[in-house]
Amino acid sequence: MSDTVETSLPLNLEACLEGMLFVSPGSVTVVQLGEALGLKPQEVEEGLHQLEVLLAARGLRLQWHAGRVQLTTAPELAPLIERYLGLEATARLSRAALETLAIIAYRQPITRPGVDAIRGVNSDGVMKSLLSKGLLQEVGRAEGPGRPILYSTTSEFLQHFGLSSIAELPPFELETFTEGEAEGNRLLKD
Description:
alpha+beta, Arc Repressor Mutant, subunit A, 14% strand, WH_DNA-bd_sf, WH-like_DNA-bd_sf, Transcriptional regulator
């Protein structure tokens, strides 16, 4: 960081970033933070990563999504915070909603017909429900016939599942069956 900028900040960079993220009504870009601080994006990113390390032992976390960052409470505090605020337990998602979210999270951006093709059933209703809950968002239109809407997950999705970024999703693995397992699962048609 340049000496002229460093002396103009009232506190260290991590403290300034923490304060700015605390008062931000939602997620912000590194560029927005850099402009406010008079710093280059790389300097801001370094400061954010240092802040992330400092927050690891506290009740706050940085949440990254689609090139944006915001300050959130630690996911492991959710039950305590819900009880403190008198909130009802988080509404459970149906199996269809979880299945649809998983498809979109791993394949985003994806169209509704793309989700339908993977699930094998119409996903209209469940996707409308997920949109209304703020777990999905429209992110554009696909090139092709009819230009279908593309969907992706939101920062609320990350908060709901206690993730800091989409990169924290477990690796996607297709189940493979050995020949013996496949034999045992065959229908008796012979």
